[in-house]
Amino acid sequence: MAAAAAAAVGGPQPPQPELPAPGLALDKAATAAHLKAALSRPDNRAGAEELQALLERVLSAERPLAAAADGEEAAAAGGGGGPGAAEEEALEWCKCLLAGGGGYDEFCAAVRAYDPAALCGLVWTANFVAYRCRTCGISPCMSLCAECFHQGDHTGHDFNMFRSQAGGACDCGDSNVMRESGFCKRHQIKSSSNIPCVPKDLLMMSEFVLPRFIFCLIQYLREGYNEPAADVPSEKDLNKVLQLLEPQISFLEDLTKMGGAMRSVLTQVLTNQQNYKDLTSGLGENACAKKSHEKYLIALKSSGLTYPEDKLVYGLQEPSAGTSTLAVQGFAGATGTLGQLDSSDEEDQDGSQGLGKRKRVKLSSSTKDQSIMDVLKHKSFLEELLFWTIKYEFPQKMVTFLLNMLPDQEYKVAFTKTFVQHYAFIMKTLKKSHESDTMSNRIVHISVQLFSNEELARQVTEECQLLDIMVTVLLYMMESCLIKSELQDEENSLHVVVNCGEALLKNNTYWPLVSDFINILSHQSVAKRFLEDHGLLVTWMNFVSFFQGMNLNKRELNEHVEFESQTYYAAFAAELEACAQPMWGLLSHCKVRETQEYTRNVVRYCLEALQDWFDAINFVDEPAPNQVTFHLPLHRYYAMFLSKAVKCQELDLDSVLPDQEMLMKLMIHPLQIQASLAEIHSNMWVRNGLQIKGQAMTYVQSHFCNSMIDPDIYLLQVCASRLDPDYFISSVFERFKVVDLLTMASQHQNTVLDAEHERSMLEGALTFLVILLSLRLHLGMSDDEILRAEMVAQLCMNDRTHSSLLDLIPENPNPKSGIIPGSYSFESVLSAVADFKAPVFEPGGSMQQGMYTPKAEVWDQEFDPVMVILRTVYRRDVQSAMDRYTAFLKQSGKFPGNPWPPYKKRTPLHPSYKGLMRLLHCKTLHIVLFTLLYKILMDHQNLSEHVLCMVLYLIELGLENSAEEESDEEASVCGPERCHDSWFPGSNLVSNMRHFINYVRVRVPETAPEVKRDSPASTSSDSLSSLHNSGTAQVFSLVAERRKKFQEIINRSSSEANQVVRPKTSNKWSAPGSAPQLTTAILEIKESILSLLIKLHHKLSGKQNSYYPPWLDDIEILIQPEIPKYNHGDGITAVERILLKAALQSRMNKRIIEEICRKVTPPVPPKKITAAEKKTLDKEERRQKARERQQKLLAEFASRQKSFMETAMDVDSPENDIPMEIATAEPQVSEAVYDCVICGQSGPSSEDRPTGLVVLLQASSVLGQCRDNIEPKKLPITEEEQIYPWDTCAAVHDVRLSLLQRYFKDSSCLLAVSIGWEGGVYVQTCGHTLHIDCHKSYMESLRNDQVLQGFSVDKGEFTCPLCRQFANSVLPCYPGSNVESNLWQRPSNKSIQDLIKEVEELQGRPGAFPVSISSETNLSKEMESVMKDIKNTTQKKYRDYSKTPGSPDNDFLFMYSVARTNLELELIHRGGNLCSGGASTVGKRSCLNQLFHVLALHMRLYSIDSEYNPWRKLTQLVEEMNSQQGNEEQQPEVPILYHDVTSLLLIQILMMPQPLRKDHFTCIVKVLFTLLYTQALVALSVKCNEEDRLAWKHTGALKKNACDAEKSYEVLLSFVISELSKGKLYHEEGAQECAMVSPIAWSPESMEKYLQDFCLPFLRITSLLQHHLFGEDLPSCQEEEEFSVLSSCLGLLPTFYQTEHPFISASCLDWPVPAFDIISQWCFEINSFTERHAEQGKALLIQESRWKLPHLLQLPENYNTIFQYYHRKTCSVCTKVPKDPAVCLVCGTFVCLKGLCCKQQSYCECVLHSQNCGAGTGIFLLINASVIIIIRGHRFCLWGSVYLDAHGEEDRDLRRGKPLYICKERYKVLEQQWISHTFDHINKRWGPHYNGL
Length: 1893
Description:
The protein is of the alpha+beta class.
């Protein structure tokens, strides 16, 4: 079929038949059907030609882009008949033709039915959320789309969710990449048998149409591309072309989604070479097509690697003999050498200045790589499509189309080959690209799909030389940024290195290529080919050597470096990614004995490359001074392959080691790095800036250490084990520049080091030796032991979270090695060495995470200071580990003092490395140890405890690893006489320890004290000669020693090789300035190492003869030496342990120790203590005393601080502490006294100088969130679950107010309810007071203070000067006396009637306030300003409820509602009831008293007309009831029974002059209680049904004449029912009667309970109010007796009330006027209303009084349920999926964080919602980050997460993607902070959000 089509294409074009004009879709369909029929005939020539002609016309490439100049842009923007329209038309035609006359959608469905694909293959782009399961993955790159993941079964697997960085594709169904057990239900292998065969005619049209369509697309791409002129790529133009092509590419993409059948057609079309040839060559006369073809040819020209880049001309010449480039001669069987890339002539002549310029490097290559170099040739559509995809820098749509095709196996292979063919071209395009990041991601998006598949990678490696291509391309890429190396020999160096400052390295542009390389090396079959191919290995080592010695640091000696370059990041990243990771990849395939050959190959070429390197930098034996590079990848390759060879392949180490001379060279540079580390830490490089410290830290940091410092140390260990130990030791001290320090003389001259650095460099050298000798990472430890040691070291420094441990423990850096940190061994080791500490919560404390802490036995046996020192990035971590160790010993009672680092037993050495221990048994080391011990004993300067510690550690290491046969050792001491032998006879430490050294010759400056000393006792010549016979130890020079050894080694190897001895480089950098004359002096020593140790013991313990050999008492000790008492301790313990070990090792030592101890030792330093030494001794003592003093001070300070905290601050926990009294109420003081926390003066608050309380005003909608049902609201996680706020307290109150306003007079409505359920103002204080004038000056100073505070001073915000609590206003304290209040509180015996009259009079008298308003005192001004603050705290919509804006009634309503809000909130803080009683902290720190004064002052400015005063209605009977109904046109007032009683209470009290009298208060409460009770009865009567009502009416009527009728609820209820029956309230029930009726039968008990519950909220608020106004404590009680306790506390219960018989609420009633009269008056108002509106009348009566406490929404257990629902949910406003979705935890609203789409008047959606939902407080869960963010007014803070993973850790931004579970404690803390309004105080990190959230 395809061939037929092709023939049709190629044949001569017949004249076009007349076709109907492409007008209607109908025509198209008809034409399509006609053509399909024509083509279905056996002879389809005519049909084919007809179709061709049609397509030719429809898809003509001339239209869209032919002449962009002819004003076509306008048309392109979708102008009527412009190209836009033409293209759409073309697409329509194509769709019609494909469908062959049917509908396109039906066609799609039909094709889908034949989809045999068992692969998912879903392609996604960056930021998509996908899953990776390590349990199911074969390749580590395996990923699944969410759908396949959730459909598969991954319970208990090690999986995580991740955000795709570069894009990817779903691998479900691909058994090459993942195990079949993990496939989802849809892709569990379908056998292809049950899929019917595709009918022939279904896709017939596609086979004809698609080739033309794709060719048309290619024409467009050719047409649109212009070679960028002068290196400025016209990205704009490219993007324009791509935009135009969007519909075409999308069309292709849709085709791929039709399933396997369509994909195979597309594959045919894309890979068919005949089609391509015919269409591209058959251009005929078409000028336009010709033009596009020319453009294509131009574009192709630059695709080969040999394209003259950078305007340099490369001659294809044979390498000439004299070229000084790094030529790699002799590729295995290389026949011709290609492209010597040398610089053009003029640069070569310019040799002198050529230094800074780049030096080009010649690349040799065999002819088989010719194809890489050449210009590309395309043979199919696929190849050209990929070519343009690359040219256009990988447009996302094209990438997706190409990847969508991958499930087709045939395509996959073809595409992979094409990709490889274009690999070099990709690299070139990438290098030039300006958007290299995006492009890198897209490249990897493609390559990871191709190269992760081992089968495919192997095939391409064999057929397309994939490895050669990759290595060559990498080499070429780096080749462009090489510079001459300045290491060692700056002038003559021939070595070139990459320049880390180049964009290529700085921006990591190389990573896509390197990552592909690492990816294919992870396949065993590919890696083996690489390791077998010698030519490739040579090229690769050549590549690695580009990085050898890069980023060279030169120590600045004079001034600080001007510009700190940050290139070191690039250098470390490059070495890790380009060198180390491929190395680990290769190493992972060298695990078994059979792979020995590979290791030999690598080691061989590695050594060759190293030898070339040493030659290139002219290295002989001395490293250049003051230079260091941290990058030695060749050394590290060599080291790691050696280690692998010994550990896994049983290779003989010596067979792969070079000669001694090479070993000596090899050790120099790694040793130089170790010495430089010490220098950097000693601040010797400080002039190089911070970056050098950064390098030292990165070198040991967890991600780098096992590719950097570990191989370096291992290589040094190998060298040490094979080189002469004396040579090695002396080299170390020379490198560390401390040779001059190692003298017995008390003074010395150091030529290379300043005195201040000596001590730390000596510590560095000794520490290095200890690490070198005790580290066993590559010398015999198993993988599990290594993991355990690493973990213990990290845990000892600090407790760690699980994720930080994973991060800190260096895993095998090759991600493909299969050793994943989350693997089984990690968890099992962790549980063996650490205990999990679950996160704990202190309210207001910081959120803690789950931590792991070392088990006690780990501290006891496994704490290894050496490992800790090796792994610490910051020096403070070593200290931290020691502090924790000390604490453990104290706690467990093992050791009380300051311990020394413990000595830890080591894993046995692997036999190959036994030679390493010779270092411990060489005389050089013994002389150094002896010297240092002596110097420490004599208190020479510059020695520290650390030095002593390391010296003892080395001695102990030597004793632990001593050779057994000691006697032979001593016999065999003969040999060439050396100056050593005048020190020690042999080289075994055990015997050398007891060797006495009598006299020592030293070279000292003439000024030294030793010179002046007399010669030993008798100066006669014979005694002197005897002196010489007894052997004076010679002057000993480490340097001379090393030189001699070096010469020996060189001579030995050169005599073999017949070479000339190399000239030794002289030590030409001795310090300038002439050193003073040195003379030789002889010191009398008469000590051995043992005697020095014993004296040291005396010195350390400060007692004479303190050491007594323990075996004299207990001979057992010698038999079982492991004594726990020696495991932990300080220096004294260490010395004892060493002496014991020495005694154990030889009987001679034991005897000598005993002898030394028998001699009574004279006082330790026999000489006069010089002033300097005295100074150091004193210094120590003084230090100790200072330390003790400091401890004492600190302890005292801590206790003072604690007591301050207890008194002043209980911000954080509203429950626990007792805060400061605001005013101390002592009766004898006449006025309350306040302390000002700013000026510190105490005094009363006066009118001229008022004092105020520091308060925070905030709007709150917490009350409005109370609901009336117990069932908590859940966060919606499906479309069905939506939250409707109609049952919240705020909504109910809103409805009530608007209902009242519909029927009643506005001013009266505003007195009948409270507002402030939403946006009420809550006032809280820290309890500190200040003068208001002091506060003003404090605010001024804050304003001038330019420090960035977390608050805005302009908005009046500040922090309390004493306790730093956040505040924004000051509440004036009303001047008043305490005594007065006592008078006011005396109970009076007036009757209730008198009191009622008094109340009424007081309310009517406006001027009764003591401070007359007219006089503007400071106090009244402040009161006004604070009232303004209170009003401004909340938004206008929460203050204005009146129909007439700005009416005084509004302010009136607002003010008493503020009081209500604060009382209600306090009630909620107490848990919703007052059972706990007592003055809880909330009460103590409450500012309600002051607030009441301010409110009352303002309320009294508005006097209520006396006839409207509800007080009248409550306490007087109105004569004629009918008068009210006269004026119909006026809206009536609200009936008294509809009033909210608590509001009435506040109105009445605030209208009274302050301070209020207790009996007036009680009187008001009593009167209001009667109203409340009546309301309860009415509500009860409405709730029950008709029969009950009749029954009650009847029973009550019988008792009406009893004496206490007014106090019997039955009588009252019956009366209420009979009164209300007169109206229409109970009628009209009929239908909805059932709805109102509660099904329970009312018993007297349940009725009593109902009445009590109805009244309780009022009683609680009233009791609280009484508690605040009169300072009486609240009684505590059981819940069931709350009513009776509160009512008696309020004085409602008559005092003579007996408690025996059950309590009845009605007994609290005290009617001011006859009950029945007043009730009937109240009922009459209701009846007159229900005449017209029975329904509403009833609704208003039934008030819901029992609100439950407010709660945040209930969250699901698993975070994934939230995430899956919300992260793809579209925003309701803009219908897009938000970038940062968030959900409100108070009401469940879904919002866009920072979404510009939903911005309204410059407010983003979260800020807007926080104002609407929480009056300025918002609590949002950020879906993509799992974090909670709090918005409070104009500030916000990140609160933390309430979801933790299995290890108790947050996962902010879901970086780890592990499953998260709700942490109920944290959520409770969050809810508590919300309810108690303490976000501002507890969370510290606030910042302004500028309305942008």
